[in-house]
Amino acid sequence: MLYIVGLGLSDERDITVKGLEAVKSCERVYLEAYTSILMVDKQRLEEFYGKEVTIAHRETVESGSDEILHDADRVNVAFLVVGDPYGATTHTDLVIRARERGIAVKTIHNASIMNAVGATGLQLYNFGQTVSIVFFTDDWRPDSFYDRVAENAALGLHTLCLLDIKVREQTIENLMRGRQIFEPPRYMSVCLAAQQLLEVETARAAGVCGENALAVGVARVGSDDQIIRAGTLRQMADFDFGAPLHSLVLVGSRLHLLEAEILREHAIDLESLNHVLKQDYKIDA
User: Fold this and answer.
1) Computed from CA positions of residues 206, 210, 215, 221, in that sequence, does the dihedral angle turn out positive or negative?
2) Which residue(s) pair with 80 in the sheet?
């Protein structure tokens, strides 16, 4: 049996009872470590689960899945995913390959940012398409997400922006020379995401995410020190949310009165937020 187990958002204790029972029954346990991260290290997981945990990097999952699936038709193997297992298409592909080999698969779900973003006070029913924002480089500044944000905005819907993670990335030189030398991990901040959004808005000029657009930044959702702050994109671009992981929400025009009330509790600057709510959303303080 191949168990695909969601770990939740924060630490080793976020695994479900069902998930923990599955892990304890397994001969091998792999931790997917490139689409997201927990806020604790592998040793903490091993101590809590009572099992050795093998880190599964992107190349292992996408190109070397034979290692993960080996003997999974005869023994139990766990593949651990931060958040919920189906937050990334890579994991669906692993399930397909397992079933092609006649390996039974069981998925054990958990919380992910896709539903935990409700902690902002914004109603999940009012979210549109989720987008990803990647790190810009000198010669690569993709903005295809802007069209999805514009479509959501046209319907008055909120947009959840998932922010880039760079793990085990290589320089072009090391890649070309075949050297297994990797750059330090990088995690996009709300601050940088807001700056990039403002840059794209300047170029595209459709009025989707300008300086006064209302947004909510979140950091370390599900942890004891999670941060939620509401304000304009310009304020987001200047605010330090601390350690990763971060996400950003662009607030749609169909903002409900109750949503607005909770955003006030998280305001970077309440007077400024009330001004935006009154001017753009017709919601009085």
Assistant:
1) positive
2) 5, 31
